[in-house]
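BUG-421 | component: ligand-complex export | severity: low

The export step for N-(iminomethyl)-L-glutamic acid jobs runs without errors, but we want the raw record kept on the ticket for reference. Input record follows.
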Amino acid sequence: MKAQKIFTHLNQIFCPVDKGHALRGVEMLEAKILENGYIAILDGRILDVGEGKPPKAMIGELTEQIDCRGKIASPGLIDSHTHLVYGGSRENEFAKKLNGVSYLDILREGGGILSTVHATRESSFEELYEKSEKLLEEIVVHGVTTVEAKSGYGLNWEVEKRQLEVVKRLNENLAVDLVSTFMGAHAVPPEFKGRSKEYIDVLVEEMLPKVVEENLAEFCDVFCEKDVFSAEESRRILSAAKELGLKLKIHADEIEAIGGTELAAELHAISAEHLMVVSEEEIKKMSEENVIGNLLPATTFSLMTNTYAPAKKMLEAGMAIALSSDSNPGSCPTANLQFIMQLGCFAMKLTPIQVFNAVTINAAYAIDRAKEVGSFDIGKYADITMFDAPNIDYPLYFFATNLVSDVYKKGELIVKNRQLV
Ligand code: NIG
Ligand code: FE
């Protein structure tokens, strides 16, 4: 078969091994690194990858050959945890944070997530769309081709739906793929203060069935945290979501460990997010039930708590881990997944191979997209992120700089020389 495009002379190509499940424990050390590689694509999908010269049989008259000297390639990066759609911003809390006021104290005073809820409720669909589109473009310029996006700043049906519809529209209009998560259980809205049971009734009896009926999300997530939703409350919400056919995620053990990880194992959540203060016992439970640990080191960085999730302990216990940004206006205002990858090395002491696996194949499993993306297996989408770099170690070692040069989504160029096409 003739290729449509062939990228040649890539210094290295990072090829994760898709074993049919997220890579666990020592498996995360594995990958094929092709030297002087080529990637051949056809109809937006991977046709072949290899070293040296591409097979002659693949080169036809119409084949476009693209010389990629000076670059390396990895499967398009996947940001498997973002809070993409919101109104306003929260730099006004920054000075407080620098003076030592905690994230949960700011939330208890009605700030934090609730201040973003206020700004999001004030925003029209168009305003939210434009703002999210800009942020998404910034994320893409840093090498990302697939993005998970959560609701959770509406906390009433009208505005949760608006957020989910923004995600849907972005998915339709932009080249990148979005995966939608309903997170109506992100906080108890002010009008239900002190009546969380009643808010959960609304979530379970009204909102979740509508999410499913209107096909607005594929996952359900809950912020299981002290003074937000207890493990018992989270169980009720997630069990109802599961019953309706949604897949599960849970924000657990971010600030205090209150049983969210145990719940993730019990309900077979696809992933548990954050896990900064998780215990060894809980790690074992998640490992046994194949819950992917979705770690968000830039949130620890931004919260300034120095509580990085114990990634190495998780790997020792045989868990699978993914890394993602948590991009949001409060605990992690960033659009740069490369910085998260670098923190994976600098703060968690993961190796470049473990980190690349965490943002490609394992991130694909964390959002249930591994059949389509996350590796260069033949037939998967030709989602390719190229870095200006001599080898795969370089973009992790040379930090806080955007080294992504070109990005292809389904074989089409969407970023060239660090600019959106
Ligand atoms: O993952 N922890 C809960 N949710 C987000 C923060 C959202 C916000 O502060 O606006 C997180 O850290
Ligand atoms: Fe989050």
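Assignee comment: Attached the raw record above. Residues 15 and 32 are 5 Å apart (CA to CA).
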